[in-house]
Design brief:
Length: about 100
Amino acid sequence: MHSSNRNNSGRLIIVEQTGDEINQDMPKIQWVATEDALPYRVMIARELYIGENYNTNSLERCEGFAESFVSSLNEGTQVQLVRFGFCRLNGGNAAIFTHR
């Protein structure tokens, strides 16, 4: 278990280990070093229609960070993002989720 504190702007500033127990239901964090972090977006296509109705929330956008190495890969390259799944690079700082 870990505890953390945030500054006034909401940025994480301190993380302390508070125990060794593992909570399987708690979301996991994949760390990326600050000096190697590249802002990144993954787009996830959801159901386009719900019944007969167009789903206005069919495209989910997840914002986060990737290791800068991803910028050296070609558009269309299939990659596995740790704790996320497989994605196809979509150029720039974005990818399209394909499967877990």
